[in-house]
Amino acid sequence: MEEQGRRRAGRPRTPLLSRELILDTALRLLDERGEAGAGMREVARELGVRPSALYNHVAGREDLIGGIRELISDRIDVDCFEELPWDEALIRWADSYRAAFAAHPPTIALLATTPLTPDSRTSLMYDAVVRALVRAGWPEERALAVIVAIEAFLLGAALDAAADPDMLDPGPRDDVREFSGAFAARKRALAAAGGGPADEAYRIGIDAIVAGLRAELISGR
Amino acid sequence: MEEQGRRRAGRPRTPLLSRELILDTALRLLDERGEAGAGMREVARELGVRPSALYNHVAGREDLIGGIRELISDRIDVDCFEELPWDEALIRWADSYRAAFAAHPPTIALLATTPLTPDSRTSLMYDAVVRALVRAGWPEERALAVIVAIEAFLLGAALDAAADPDMLDPGPRDDVREFSGAFAARKRALAAAGGGPADEAYRIGIDAIVAGLRAELISGR
DNA sequence: ACCTGAACACCGTTCAAGT
DNA sequence: ACCTGAACACCGTTCAAGT
Fold it and tell me: Is the same domain home to A130 and A202?
């Protein structure tokens, strides 16, 4: 990092690294350089240390990614379930969930595909949500499905947000008239209203899901 | 593959490879061995060929993955938009979309994070969906947001389906009573009804989204 | 306990040489 | 045009040696 002179082998008098320092550095590099910046070797280089030194503090790359996930997940708001009606709380929760990951776009693709090792904080979050759903009248055996469905949408929306905004651009061609028209119309509407296509799709989707869930709960299913 | 004797260098009398053969083989290996089986070297080995030989037919790994995506996407049903009301068609489309990827679980994580190079078939699909939505009364500038929202959910649900069914298992602990209870209740309900947790969450989610969209369209919004 | 240094077993990709 | 063979520039990870 700032060290200049070559360090001799052997244990340093005071530790150079810690799990926390490694995770913070990895997340920062991820933000600065994208997915490529989060390798064991890159993190080590940034810390002015040999790659093998990291293994004294993290179990390996998978553990590193899991640690980053926890760092980000800590930003998710679960208090809302104690303060708001279940449907409003669900939206508040989803919004903060999305915001937490949207603050670190390059992490999304990385975290999305790394299976999560269940940690206690995540379980506490699920507990809060389940409690609110059951209290609101959802059958206990269906509560998790509701949560998983919303998380699926959040994950997909986060991946979408991390992608190129012009991803769908059909380009100049005349065999997809309606599609081209809709693409141009969306562009105009977004330019006038502000915000990006991913934000708009997220808002439509989360509102639709929660509205649909509300209707299902009322109708008895 | 079946060849035994070492081939001499130089162009073979009849080509050993083709783009199609390479893509088919890669998809098969992906299914058989998981994400690890789709490397350039693995595909080459399976075809009894040197890795560098593949570059005569595909541009590289990214092109390979893009080709696999197209192979799978061809299974998505878009005819339903000409035959059914928009909301029913949306569900039919989503179901076939999901089924296409669910048939190849290991591909999902791979495809989810590889940015898609817009090909013409995908654009044709979007065109069909936009046409149906606009015909049903959706504002042209909002049609794409509806599609993107549903695709986000599909992508997330597909990732979820590819994950470990017991992923959320809180294990034995007494500080998340409601969560543990819901987990056990879900397990019992699924054992009785059949199907996996991912299927249940998908069904709840897609039905809720489309119900919410239907309500939004009717209410004018 | 916690670092260096050297090694191992992998990747994807390039390119000259051969037919 | 389409393959082999050798190389290059990467990965994550292990482990003995040093303090």
Answer: yes
